[in-house]
Design a protein that fits this description.
Length: 492
């Protein structure tokens, strides 16, 4: 879905319609055994969690991330339990404190868990102190877990609450991650906070004068590019990577502190730093599952989340034989890349195996078919290569970089509003009397580009209108292969 939930003041936000990358992030934090993992599991239900391997001090720790579902609320939730695996008494959060601080920076809110049964422990005080120091801009909500165990009357809840209040983060919400008791109270506290956060994203822009923003694009697009090659086993990903790396200065190898599986490949291309995301994952799989033809969607999903640009590799010979250019799995991956807000480049490999007639047919048919199968994005670049012969590898990297630059694009409000004037007159409105009034148009963020249309009056932009604006924006500013989002905000 390209069109995000419509933000209108006075109307509740439909969180289920907000794209994942715009959702607020909530960290679960607290000393070991307070029930962070239990709460995490309850919040994400049986949904899939992403595990980040965070290398530190030669030990890999896992931070789990998932999309929490609490009533109609949705947010990203991070479970920091893995971070304290080695926290020894005395040094709360152990040697991972710095890492936790980094993780905290990715978050908008933190749920600080304490244990109702144990009462306040010295370690809770340490966590509190630490949070106060490291999370000044982050709203902290205290949660008193295992509250179902306080069954000896109301009095014990009250005394536990007032004890916890001394930490200075307000009254804790008593709940039980295990039984689900009190989850509705958590909802009541979180809803207004998360909603306020969503409105802020849009508000920030309203008074921002971003006249000079085009000049910073070059700087931003110089930041390291995270690239993921995805595709079924045997389509030629390893061969292609080797072909690309041969020419350019290469830096391959396990870094100190990374586990053996986490080989990071980093290289320069035309003065840019490129990080290959999770190359080891498929390198390893290719070795162990030779002949397997399915593409692990779960595995690829992880890669997608970390990549700026996703390069989907197809096997040209199979494309020429099959009725469709892409298998079901490949379409799912491509769509997901776009939904997750990544840039997409499609690579058709093994073109050396095709005789001339077939070659031409494939080159003609594939871009059209891809457009039909992934209508959400226009102009997805398709590159035809032979990794084995080293043909087209430069083209691959150039397309990747072009896509990345588009992904970093920033357009000034002035330019966008000149564009808006023209484009609004091009659109045939359903009923001209009830034409929505777009007062102005502005870019809220880049990477990927996200825009807000400020609409006044009674009429809102319909999905058709938003689709029209999105398509025009992409065409007029040449944003092929990247997801572009337009949000709508009512102004009075
Ligand atoms: P973490 O180290 O903070 O991630 O804590 P865990 O989620 O691993 O929980 C530690 C222990 O507390 C486990 O034995 C859980 O079963 C237990 N636990 C978690 N939540 C509750 C709860 O709400 N009530 C009770 N009685 N036990 C809980
Ligand atoms: P991966 O599983 O996607 O990493 O695929 P590999 O790079 O291991 O390649 C699988 C097989 O396809 C190997 O036997 C390669 O030699 C072969 N291959 C890769 N690229 C090409 C190509 O451009 N042309 C031809 N003819 N074979 C290729």
């Amino acid at each position: 879905q390209l069109i995000d939930a419509k933000f209108e003041s006075g109307k509740p936000i439909e969180f289920s319609k907000v794209s994942a990358h715009l959702l607020p992030t909530v960290l679960l934090i607290g000393r070991p055994n307070v029930g962070k993992s239990a709460l995490f599991n309850r919040l994400i239900r049986r949904r899939e969690a992403l595990v980040y391997n965070t290398p530190n001090d030669h030990v890999t720790r896992d931070i789990r991330e998932g999309i929490a579902k609490l009533g109609d609320l949705r947010f990203k939730v991070l479970d920091s339990a893995g971070l304290e695996a080695e926290a020894s008494s005395g040094s709360v959060l152990g040697r991972t404190a710095e890492m936790t601080a980094n993780v905290l920076r990715m978050c908008n809110f933190a749920l600080f868990l304490i244990d109702a049964r144990d009462g306040l422990q010295p370690m809770d005080l340490d966590v509190g102190k630490w949070l106060r120091k490291h999370a000044p801009g982050i709203k902290i909500i205290m949660v008193m877990n295992k509250a179902e165990s306080l069954d000896d009357g109301f009095g014990s809840v009250i005394s536990a609450v007032s004890e916890a209040r001394t930490l200075g983060f307000g009254d804790p919400i008593p709940l039980s991650a295990e039984t689900g008791l009190g989850m509705n109270d958590l909802y009541e506290v979180l809803r207004p906070l998360l909603e306020e956060h969503m409105f802020q994203i849009v508000d920030e822009v309203a008074d921002e004068t971003n006249e000079d923003c085009e000049s910073c694009v070059e700087e931003e697009s110089k930041l390291p590019l995270q690239l993921a090659f995805v595709g079924r086993p045997n389509v030629g990903k390893s061969t292609l990577l080797n072909a690309i790396l041969q020419e350019d200065r290469v830096l391959v190898g396990p870094e100190a502190g990374l586990t053996r599986d986490s080989v990071r490949v980093e290289f320069e291309f035309e003065g840019r730093t490129i990080y290959m995301v999770d190359t080891a994952g498929w390198l390893k799989r290719t070795k162990s599952e030779k002949g397997a033809s399915s593409l692990s969607i779960v595995q690829s999903r992880k890669n997608l989340m970390r990549a700026h640009v996703v390069a989907l590799v197809l096997d040209g010979q199979e494309v020429s034989k099959a009725r469709k250019s892409m298998t079901h799995d490949e379409i799912v991956i491509a769509r997901r890349a776009i939904e997750e807000g990544r840039g997409l480049v499609v690579i058709v490999n093994k073109m050396d195996l095709l005789e001339e007639r077939l070659y031409d047919r494939v080159v003609q048919a594939v871009p059209k078919e891809i457009q039909m199968m992934i209508p959400q994005v226009t102009g997805i670049p398709v590159v035809f290569v032979s990794a084995l012969e080293g043909k087209g590898r430069i083209d691959v990297m150039q397309e990747v970089i072009e896509t990345y630059k588009k992904w970093c694009l920033r357009l000034s409000t002035a330019r966008l509003n000149r564009w808006l004037l023209k484009v609004m007159s091009r659109h045939s409105w359903k009923d001209s009397a009830a034409q929505p009034k777009v007062k102005y148009f502005t870019q809220v963020k880049a990477r990927p580009p996200t825009f807000v249309a400020f609409v006044s009056g009674k009429v809102r932009l319909s999905d058709t209108d938003l689709r029209f604006l999105t398509r025009s924006l992409k065409e007029d500013f040449d944003m092929g292969g990247i997801p572009v989002r337009i949000l709508q905000r009512a102004i009075v």
